[in-house]
Write a structure and sequence with these properties.
This protein is α+β, with helices and mostly antiparallel strands. It has two domains: about 80 residues; about 160 residues, OmpA-like domain (60s Ribosomal Protein L30, Chain: A, 2-Layer Sandwich), CATH 3.30.1330.60. The chain is built from seven helices and six strands; from the N terminus they run H-H-H-E-E-E-H-E-H-E-H-E-H. Strands 1, 2, 3, 4, 5 and 6 form a six-stranded mixed β-sheet that branches. The longest helix is centred in the first third of the chain and has 80 residues. It is rod-shaped, with a radius of gyration of 45 Å.
Length: about 260
Amino acid sequence: MKVNLNLLMLLSIVLLMSSCVSKKKWTQLLSDKASVDSMLEAEKNKVKDMEGKITSLEGAQADLQSKYDTEAERAERLATEASQFKMDLESSQTSASEAMSKLKLNEGQLADLQAKVGSVVSGGGFDLAPRDGRLYVNSGEPILFNSGSVRVKRSYNQALENVANVLKGNPSLRLIIEGHSDNVPVKAGVAYADNWDVSIARSKAVTKKLIRLGVPENQLLPTGRGEYVPVAADNSAEARKMNRRVDFIVMPNLSSLMSASRP
């Protein structure tokens, strides 16, 4: 039987190579391969984990961008509203000034009103002070407020009772209750937007107290002038104290004034 020479040579080479690698070395190579495979799998898991974190961070970034865009829109809207509020406030101040100017009297009208009201108010222990075309009622002690406060102090109870008694005894007498503030800006987070609000709140506090003392609502007109009509122009502590006040002003009979002004 003829034996293929080439096949014999190949078998010889394989047997020779097998004899060159020992079983121990082969086992070590297999162990090293398993270790490398394990490390490769661990690295693949790390890459997968990092990819997950990147996806999560991209989602968080998109969420933050969305929130930023929303806040930016909100800030822009608030800025627009603040600008509109400022315009409305300026318009209100102008309207209030115009309304108050209509209540100013000339010297003859002021003297006539003072003569009519003088005897009534003097009976309650008050006097009248004409100033800037209006007739102020002086109660002896001005009603002042602590900084930022709208609470009427108890020490003014007697003065307000005297005002209430005069008003109740004279139904035709009407008073403007005019609140004022100093020029210190209102702190953020308080109940009032600005000094205009504070002055109106002070006026309303005194008005409500007079109503509780029995004065009919139609004899009282609460209003506020903010810091725009100070009695003391300097910015000392004493000046600011005197500006945080409520004034009582005699309301003239507008219908009679209108008829008197007609030609």
